[in-house]
Amino acid sequence: MDRNVFKIDKLPTVRRLPAYLHILRQLARCDEKFVSSAFLAEKLNIEPILVRKDFELTRVAGTPRVGYSISGLIASIEEFLGWGEDLDAILVGVGQLGASILGYRELMDFRLRILAGFDSDPEKVGTAVHGVPVFAVTRLEELLGRLRARLAILTVPSADAQNITDLLVSSGIRGIWNYTSENIVVPADVITQKEDLASGLAVLCVKMSRNMPSPL
Amino acid sequence: MDRNVFKIDKLPTVRRLPAYLHILRQLARCDEKFVSSAFLAEKLNIEPILVRKDFELTRVAGTPRVGYSISGLIASIEEFLGWGEDLDAILVGVGQLGASILGYRELMDFRLRILAGFDSDPEKVGTAVHGVPVFAVTRLEELLGRLRARLAILTVPSADAQNITDLLVSSGIRGIWNYTSENIVVPADVITQKEDLASGLAVLCVKMSRNMPSPL
DNA sequence: TATTTATCGATATTTTTTTATCGTATAGCA
DNA sequence: TGCTATACGATAAAAAAATATCGATAAATA
Ligand SMILES: NC(=O)c1ccc[n+]([C@@H]2O[C@H](COP(=O)([O-])OP(=O)(O)OC[C@H]3O[C@@H](n4cnc5c(N)ncnc54)[C@H](O)[C@@H]3O)[C@@H](O)[C@H]2O)c1
Ligand SMILES: NC(=O)c1ccc[n+]([C@@H]2O[C@H](COP(=O)([O-])OP(=O)(O)OC[C@H]3O[C@@H](n4cnc5c(N)ncnc54)[C@H](O)[C@@H]3O)[C@@H](O)[C@H]2O)c1
After folding, report:
1. Which of A131, A181, B173, B201 could serve as B168's disulfide partner, Cβ 3.0–4.6 Å?
2. CA-to-CA distance for A115 and A113, rounded, in angstroms?
3. Which residue in B has a C-alpha nearest to residue A206's C-alpha?
4. What is the distance between the alpha carbons of residues B99 and B112, in angstroms, rounded to a whole number?
5. What is the spatial distance between Cα A89 and Cα A176, in angstroms, rounded to a whole number?
6. What is chain B's Cα-based Rg?
7. Residue A8, SS3?
């Protein structure tokens, strides 16, 4: 199935890694040295055994009666995710959502560095949003030749998503973090990740309707 | 395991339902009447058989050589998710992200109606953001007594997440759509859904690092 | 030093999810 | 009407993920 070239296993584990990382960093800031699977499980509302299973991926060995080395885990998870060094990206569509992402401080935790924004609105071109310069989308190809970014955040209106995607791909972007509601089409060697708020809401709604006695 | 009171199965299916719904509505707008599992699978980059399995949940029967009734599927999925009627909600923390959600037009597709915003910033109280009135967070309990909303969208700074959660819970909120990076703690009968951007980025990063020959 | 206790980690089991197989139903068409 | 191609759907199989069991190890304590 060539559509699944980029299928990876242990995907649920990968999805949990950032959550572990977040807690581990908090602990590290409090000068904690070790943490148990039970502690992390409690925080994340999962089973301790699942935490230990996930940590097999990190190759960090825990010690009985003590737990895992926090710094060891952090280093290993960061390395696994490639979050040890800055991750250069651009953002296309500096609208409401785009601007809020540019101003999202905690994004630095993932070492994501947004080098430039691109927009079609002449009013926005030439300005800086939260310190990030905004360029005309027409200059995308030209500027991407100079920037090292291979990752793009897509926050244009859904109707423009495919057009801009095509432009991004032909300009050398290899990964697209897609916030639009469109299912964009890319060549086989380009990775996309769709951020779908609706699916989270769907889960919430189903859980609420299933287990709540009263309507909604 | 009482933490899993609200565990539901077929969760991956539930997560995909909004994506089906989105495409089905597009088709309906084009006056299409029927759709095949192969068509939807192609759009979503999944296998047709998975679409058919998912549709078992809708109890809509497809007809060979024709496919599924689009209107039937839409009605069934909406009913399943409870998206057939307006879903009243409030939003706490009318900052960058909060404001962008309030201005998110496509949110109406889920029939989510945000009745009010709440914020601690006196500058924001009394204003309207994208037509939604913003009240002081101190009036939350009082106003929730009058509003029918049982769902809250949480977009306050992460440091305030737990405090506000406690307030929401004691004010009668039963479901919290949590956009902060905190793992909030709630009583057993309250549902939370954490929207974690980091996990999407993690998946993207891992996919990119795994299958790209060149670094990043 | 022996005992107790917490916690890991190897292995096995169960559950859930995805994918495959193949018979069946139906629309279109000769 | 009978043939053919298409798409479903029941059943089975495979794969993946989560959970359980339990022995081993190391810290704390007596
Ligand atoms: N606002 C939200 O909370 C939210 C949430 C989830 C997803 N989204 C998605 O994010 C996208 C943007 O939503 P928004 O609310 O920020 O809309 P918006 O209209 O505020 O922002 C869109 C921006 O893209 C720019 N733009 C339009 N066409 C362009 C083009 N061809 N090239 C470059 N830039 C272009 C516009 O000038 C504008 O600045 C939509 O696809 C929406 O579905 C938004
Ligand atoms: N900006 C993003 O793109 C983004 C993305 C994902 C998650 N988040 C999360 O969303 C949250 C908000 O982020 P933001 O970028 O919008 O920050 P922000 O500072 O722009 O917005 C926070 C808002 O909450 C209000 N507030 C603060 N304390 C409050 C309280 N006790 N009660 C009520 N309101 C209060 C502030 O006045 C402000 O209006 C954070 O937890 C962040 O982690 C943001």
Report:
1. B173
2. 6
3. B81
4. 15
5. 10
6. 20
7. coil
Instruction: Indicate the burial class of A126 (C-beta count within 10 angstroms; 0-12, 13-18, 19 or more).
Output: exposed
Give the pTM: 0.95
Domain B3-81 has CATH 3.40.50.10610: no
- Separation of CA A45 and C1' D16 in angstroms? 21
Q: How many angstroms away from the CA of A44 is the closest CA of chain B?
A: 7
Give start-end residues of each CATH 1.10.10.10 domain in chain A.
3-81
With tokens 């010690």, the residue in question is A63
Residue A154 Cα to ligand 1 midpoint, Å, equals 8
- Collapsing DSSP to helix, strand or coil, B46 comes out as coil
- The more confidently predicted of residues B211 and B179 is B179
Parallel/antiparallel/unpaired status of strands B128-129 and B87-92: unpaired
Q: Output the CA–CA distances (angstroms, integers) from residue A9 to A14, A57, A110, in the order listed.
A: 9, 11, 22
pLDDT in tens, A63-99: 999 999 999 999 999 999 999 999 999 999 999 999 9
Query: Å from B62 (CA) to D7 (C1')?
Result: 9
Euclidean distance between CA atoms A101 and A87, whole angstroms? 15
Angle between helices A70-81 and B197-211 (to 10 degrees): 60
Q: What is d(CA B124, CA B134) in angstroms, rounded to the nearest whole number?
A: 7
Q: Any idea which fold B87-199 has?
A: Rossmann fold (3.40.50)
Question: Residue B33 — very low, low, confident or very high, per pLDDT cuts 50/70/90?
Answer: very high
- Measured distance CA(A201)–CA(B87) in Å, rounded: 11
Using the CB atom, is residue A56 less than 7 Å from strand C? yes
* CB-CB neighbours of B9 under 10 Å: 7
Cα–Cα dist A37/B143, whole Å: 41
Residue A8 has pLDDT above 90, yes or no: no
Sequence-ordered alpha helix ranges (H) in A9-93: 11-29, 37-44, 48-56, 70-81
If you count them, how many residues does chain A have?
216
Closest CA to B205 of A206, A93, A193, A136: A193
Q: In chain B, which residues fall in CATH 3.40.50.720?
A: 87-199
Q: Which residue is nearest to nucleotide D25 (CA to C1')?
A: A64
DSSP state of A5: T
Q: Which amino acid is at B26?
A: Q
